[in-house]
Amino acid sequence: NKSHIRRQHLKHNFSSVAVEPAEIDWDNLGFKFMPTDYMYMTKFYEGENFSKCELQRFGNIHLNPCAGILNYGQGLFEGLKAYRKHDGNILLFRPNENGLRLRMGAERMCMPCPSVEQFVEAVNATVLANERWIPPAGKGSLYIRPMLMGSGAVLGLAPSPEYTFLIYVSPVGNYFKEGLAPINLIVETVTPRATPGGTGGVKTIGNYAAVLKAQIAAKENGFSDVLYLDSVHKRYVEEVSACNVFVVKDHAISTPAINGTILPGITRKSIIDVARSQGFQVEERLVTVDELLDADEVFCTGTAVVISPVGSITYLGKRVTYESGGVGAVSQQLYSSLTNLQMGLAEDKLDWIVAL
Ligand code: COI
């Protein structure tokens, strides 16, 4: 049958076993890669005009073994999501912000970059081409992963002579295996995630491989993930491996200020605005580890994690729990406000939603 033939074809080209959307258990998606029909890919050179829509069947890509991304880590990625609304419309959340952040990162990593308009157009085209992989309303989202990489050969350390802009997508559900239940974090006191003057504030690929060692150790000890402190004083809260962090105390909300070592999350920025519009006092400032441990509620934000309440934090062998391990009222309220907006269930007063 058709699905069998398709699977044979896909097996030949891809490492993962392919499924058809009709075979997906939408209630148990998790955050695992699943190949879809199309990807966007275009190559370009410094100073050259970026070409238009380049969709092709999803599949492995060819790279020169000497490519800048493989040898010297000249690469950036983005993450955003498309939601299916109950009326069938497809909604994107602030895609222009991802386009802008990619441009900031490209400047730091010495790469030419598509304009924000070109970025958004490419995202839209990729989502529409893969429409059948967008989960039904309320069952998850289509995670969109744009990548910008130095794909030309460079042996001596230098910017790559050629660049590739690529977008692939995958249907996803909850990021953490805990689902929507609070996560348990451990504070890393030895290895920092980022250092002043480094690349912690841009979404470069190397920032993520660098945290795997601590993450694996944390998971082996039963924790969901790692929370990092600043590299100089080892006293100020920075972020979690794949998300930003917020603390709530006496109804006031604080999050580490963007200072070069913290990833400027689009969910982070959106939550600050949503919380302020609901009358919360929100401060972007230095947050000490003592304040973190003394907080009423702690939650994480990110495109992949959305808003994840934190149930406990372990620091130097001492475990502090929040809200008796349950979801705090502020985290719950902000989670509902944000997801209602993203799924088209609340009025989009700030013009953040793009309907395709
Ligand atoms: C995202 O939240 O989109 C990210 O890029 C984090 C990633 C490590 C899953």
Automatic annotation (TrEMBL):
Q: Which organism is it from?
A: Olea europaea subsp. europaea
Phylogenetic placement of the source organism: Eukaryota, Viridiplantae, Streptophyta, Embryophyta, Tracheophyta
**Cofactor requirement:** pyridoxal 5'-phosphate
Keyword terms of this UniProt record: Amino-acid biosynthesis, Aminotransferase, Branched-chain amino acid biosynthesis, Pyridoxal phosphate, Transferase
Q: Which reaction does it catalyse?
A: L-valine + 2-oxoglutarate = 3-methyl-2-oxobutanoate + L-glutamate; L-isoleucine + 2-oxoglutarate = (S)-3-methyl-2-oxopentanoate + L-glutamate; L-leucine + 2-oxoglutarate = 4-methyl-2-oxopentanoate + L-glutamate
Q: What is its EC number?
A: 2.6.1.42
Please give the biological process terms from Gene Ontology that the record holds: amino acid biosynthetic process; branched-chain amino acid biosynthetic process
Top-rank taxon = Eukaryota
According to the UniProt entry, which residues carry N6-(pyridoxal phosphate)lysine? K203
From the Swiss-Prot or TrEMBL record, give the protein name.
Branched-chain-amino-acid aminotransferase
Range of the intact protein held here? 65 to 420 of 421
Family under the similarity heading = Belongs to the class-IV pyridoxal-phosphate-dependent aminotransferase family.
* Keyword Transcription annotated: no
What GO molecular function annotations does the UniProt record carry, in alphabetical order?
A: branched-chain-amino-acid transaminase activity
Q: Which GO terms describe its cellular component?
A: chloroplast
